[in-house]
Structure formats: structure tokens, C-alpha cells
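Please review this one:
***
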Amino acid sequence: MTIYHSYEPLQGHRLSHDPVNAIVAPRPIGWISTVTADGVRNLAPYSFFNLFNYTPPIVGFASVGYKDTVANARESGEFVWNLATDDLGEQMNATSAAIPAGEDEFEAAGLTPLASDLVAAPRVAESPVGFECRVTQSFQLRTAADELVDTWMVLGEVVKIHIATGLLREDQTFDTAGARPLLRAGGQGDYFLPSDDHHRFMKRPRPATR
């Protein structure tokens, strides 16, 4: 018989660290670049990020607190998602630091801004994948009791995709494990990497025919 540790989140988890972000894990990192109306670049990683639609592709990130990235994305209507890889882990982590408003995280982390084709926000030149996005929705989250939470959700349609050709296999599929994307988990700084050694393939069941 399974024994459970059960709790109501609003009453506290009674553990050494909140387990929710370790359970819903690992998650892709929302390494989001934006630009202000004055042309100041901003780059920051977000733990709450994912793909929410296939056609057209729509991605979204949530920011705990109304930060520069949210403000820039809402005001400009644009942002870029950059794939954070294992090789870029230290630079990605550096962009999470709180620096004075108006300073450039690209410069602070030693990264190269690369002009996008359809949006004003720059891409990270060192990243092998970039999604140029236009904001479709942005809103503040609410509880089940309809109370506002200090977290903001930004969704964007991907209008252009850039993939380093070295990550495309001979059959023209994307090499997920080969890209070595950093995936966020729980704790104060836990990350994982996908591996072909743990690759499991399952086709979706087809409806039964009569």
C-alpha cells in the first residue's frame, strides 16, 4: 500500500523545499530576449515556459513579478525565445542576476546580440535555436477564488524559427538530445539534460476501425 505525504499548498508543504517545481519537471527554459522602446536590450531566463499550440506555434512564459521582460514584451508586442544549452549554462545563469535597469544583460553575460528578421528583439547569436515571437496575449494570473497573483503570463505566436543546421539529422528531424538543452527542475539550481540513452518512442493509438 502506498503511503502519501499529502498537504494543501496554502497551508504549507511541511518539507525542506516546495516540491511542486521538482514534480512538474524537467521544464524547458524560457530564455527570453526583448528590447525597450529606446533600444535597450534585455535577456532573462524563466523557469515557467512551454509550447502551447502547434499550428500556429504559440509559446508562453510566466514571470513571478512584473519584470522588465514582461514590460518590454507587452509594450513592444514582441520577444525572442533562445534555446539555453548545456554549453551556455553559465551565461544563461548570469542573465538571471538582478542588474540595474537600463543595463544590457547581453554585455553582462558576454553574449552576442544577433538581429532578428521580423521582430526588433535580438536573438542570442551563441544559441543554436531562436524563435521570433509576436505577443498574442498577456495577463495576470488569478487563484480559484478569483484573487490576483503577482505572476504575469505572456503568450506569443512564433513567426520565424532559426535552427542551426548541425542539429538537423539526415532525415531532417531535430536532434533534441544532440542540442543538449538545459531543463529546469526543482531545488535552488537543479537542471537536467535529455539523453538518447533514455529515449522512449510511443506512437499515439489510432482509433479502432470496423
